[in-house]
């Protein structure tokens, strides 16, 4: 988890324009993902002013400010420009008032701008900051994008996770992380996984060593991060272990506060794990769209039982 993000990092990631304060981009830190729209503050109400947030001015705020006198604008904006205010941000390509530049420059605060509508800009910045400032955990496993689904492959060391990921890459899927996956909670329902910078695009194959997937297979074989939609746990097969054969048992694994669907696949000589995991991802997507082969089988089985019972009853009546 990062404690803060510099304003320069924010500008680069979200493609913001810098109206003034270029020299302050590295020294100003963003510590909260929440954004403030200072409507009440422009009226002079500062009792609960969230000064540690980015101050976002949309069309409403800029229009209100233009109806104030120059002295009023300068007085209010000076009060808003505190020592821990990260930046002033203006949306829709609107020009910031001259008094904003003056007050911000005096307090060493950057003034930024964007042509995006205010709501979209707010969502874009909040999503970026949520990802950067969120608590992170490391999980042992391999994360692969299969048909657009993030599949986290887990299991004991040596069970064949990396080799399976290599075959999946050869089949046209994309590698996100091998061996160690950094995960964080993006919102109440979403877990995102990424590779640590030192392991990005790399895959370790026992007996072969470290390979660079991007260099060998091209840019289309890798991805920086993805939402984790499914966990596939590989477990060595033993005769005394019972595995789900019909797919009716539903498992989940809690990552932070989010339950992620999980399936366990037995590992045995002769099983093609890459194809099985690929089909597991396809089947998971089908279930998400409302089709469940297990329920179809159970329905057909019930119909067959009812049909046989009716036939037996008819035979008894004839006798």
UniProtKB/TrEMBL annotation:
Single Gene Ontology MF annotation: ATP binding
Principal EC category: transferase
GO biological process annotation, one example: regulation of carbohydrate metabolic process
InterPro entries: HPr(Ser)_kin/Pase, Hpr_kin/Pase_C, Hpr_kin/Pase_Hpr_N, P-loop_NTPase, Ser_kin/Pase_Hpr-like_N_sf
Residue numbers binding Mg(2+): 162, 204
Catalytic activity: [HPr protein]-O-phospho-L-serine + phosphate + H(+) = [HPr protein]-L-serine + diphosphate; [HPr protein]-L-serine + ATP = [HPr protein]-O-phospho-L-serine + ADP + H(+)
Binding-site positions, ATP: 155-162
Domain spans labelled HPr(Ser) kinase/phosphorylase N-terminal: 5-129
EC number: 2.7.11.-, 2.7.4.-
Gene3D superfamilies per the UniProt record, alphabetical: HprK N-terminal domain-like, P-loop containing nucleotide triphosphate hydrolases
This protein's UniProt keywords: ATP-binding, Carbohydrate metabolism, Kinase, Magnesium, Metal-binding, Multifunctional enzyme, Nucleotide-binding, Serine/threonine-protein kinase, Transferase
Names of the cofactor(s): Mg(2+)
Region (Important for the catalytic mechanism of dephosphorylation): 266-271
Residues forming the catalytic site: 140, 161, 179, 245
Region (Important for the catalytic mechanism of both phosphorylation and dephosphorylation), start-end ranges: 203-212
HPr kinase/phosphorylase C-terminal domain ranges (all copies): 132-300
Origin: domain of life: Bacteria
Entry comment, domain topic: The Walker A ATP-binding motif also binds Pi and PPi.
Record's function text: Catalyzes the ATP- as well as the pyrophosphate-dependent phosphorylation of a specific serine residue in HPr, a phosphocarrier protein of the phosphoenolpyruvate-dependent sugar phosphotransferase system (PTS). HprK/P also catalyzes the pyrophosphate-producing, inorganic phosphate-dependent dephosphorylation (phosphorolysis) of seryl-phosphorylated HPr (P-Ser-HPr).
Extra remark beyond the main annotation: Both phosphorylation and phosphorolysis are carried out by the same active site and suggest a common mechanism for both reactions.
Family: Belongs to the HPrK/P family.
Subunit structure as annotated in this protein's UniProt entry: Homohexamer.
Protein name: HPr kinase/phosphorylase
Organism whose genome encodes this protein: Lacticaseibacillus zeae
């Amino acid at each position: 988890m990062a404690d803060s993000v510099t304003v320069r990092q924010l500008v680069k990631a979200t493609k913001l324009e810098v109206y003034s304060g270029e020299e302050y981009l590295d020294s100003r830190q963003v510590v909260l993902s929440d954004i403030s729209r200072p409507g009440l503050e422009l009226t002079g109400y500062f009792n609960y002013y969230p000064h540690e947030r980015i101050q976002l001015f949309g069309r409403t705020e800029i229009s209100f400010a233009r109806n104030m006198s120059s002295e009023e604008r300068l007085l209010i904006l000076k009060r808003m420009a505190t020592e821990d205010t990260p930046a002033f941000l203006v949306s829709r390509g609107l020009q910031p008032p001259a008094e904003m530049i003056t007050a911000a420059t005096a307090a060493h605060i950057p003034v930024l701008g964007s042509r995006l509508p205010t709501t979209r800009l707010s969502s874009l910045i909040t999503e970026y900051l949520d990802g950067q400032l969120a608590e992170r955990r490391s999980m042992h496993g391999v994360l692969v994008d299969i048909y657009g689904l993030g599949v986290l492959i887990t299991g004991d060391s040596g069970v064949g996770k990396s080799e399976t990921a290599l075959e999946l890459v050869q089949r046209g899927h994309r590698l996100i992380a091998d061996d160690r996956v950094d995960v964080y909670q993006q919102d109440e329902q979403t877990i995102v996984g990424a590779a640590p910078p030192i392991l990005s695009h790399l895959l370790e194959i026992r007996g072969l060593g470290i390979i660079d997937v991007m260099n060998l297979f091209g840019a289309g074989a890798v991805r920086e991060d993805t939402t984790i939609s499914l966990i596939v746990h590989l477990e060595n097969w033993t005769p005394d272990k019972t595995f789900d054969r019909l797919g009716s048992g539903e498992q989940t694994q809690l990552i932070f506060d989010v339950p992620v669907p999980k399936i366990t696949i037995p590992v045995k000589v002769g099983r093609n794990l890459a194809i099985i995991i690929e089909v597991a991802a396809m089947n998971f997507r089908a279930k998400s769209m409302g089709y469940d082969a297990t329920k179809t089988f159970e329905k057909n089985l019930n119909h067959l039982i009812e049909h046989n019972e009716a036939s037996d009853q008819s035979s008894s009546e004839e006798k």
